[in-house]
Amino acid sequence: MPETSVARFYDELADDYHLIFADWDASMHRQGNALHGLMGQDNASVLDCSCGIGTQAIGLALRGHRVTGTDLSARAVARAAQEAAHRNVTLRTAVADMRRLPFPDSRFDTVVCADNALPHLLTEQDVHAALTEMRRVLRPSGLVLLSTRPYDDLLRDRPTSTPPQVHHPADGGERTITFQLWHWHEDGEHYDLEHFQLLPAGGEWRVKVRRTVYWALGRDRLTALVTDAGFVDPEWGIPQETGFFQPLLMARAGT
């Protein structure tokens, strides 16, 4: 998947991304709290290398961490910076590819790559490049936190759609509807995703459709790739254990 296509997907989604959540601010706080609990330290230097509009990055900044957010999508990064400023927290931002991070070695205590961002990389070579960069910018024994969809289950069932999510704004605004269609490739591992948002428009529905591609990386395969990139002590946590909404892989940078 050309990086420009991934950037386009999130550029097009940036203005409406918060509508995926029933309550984006509540999700921001909940995810930031869960990640903070896993980090086990205060005032950490954190890189969110797939920050999007800032869901995890702002959540962590609200917990007092020193957060830098990067993403391929310039529009998403710009919104993350605006949303952080609106909440009176500091969030340094830059447009960057996680395979080529613009930071010196050993810069961060923790690197976060959440919300199924890593599987936008469609080959082992690209995933290895990103993980190697995360390892490079971490201090010795620094922590990486990676979350993906529950791909072991999804690879078994290969669903073709997600249930519609109806968002009722807390401010009493009009509801919106979000759902996805998945088209699995012949290899059984990659899938095209069509993301639908239905937005009210004068008594009718206006439909926005964005398209991208993912690689369904199962736990064992991702664990092996993380180990090959120089991380040690990989451990998976499920949402019931971590409080985070997706399965999450934690590992330490080898010394």
From TrEMBL:
Keywords: Methyltransferase, Transferase. One of its GO terms (molecular function) is methyltransferase activity. Pfam families: Methyltransf_25. InterPro entries: Methyltransf_25 (IPR041698), SAM-dependent_MTases_sf (IPR029063). GO terms for biological process: methylation. Residues 46-142 form the Methyltransferase domain. This is Class I SAM-dependent methyltransferase. The lineage of its organism: Bacteria, Bacillati, Actinomycetota, Actinomycetes, Kitasatosporales.
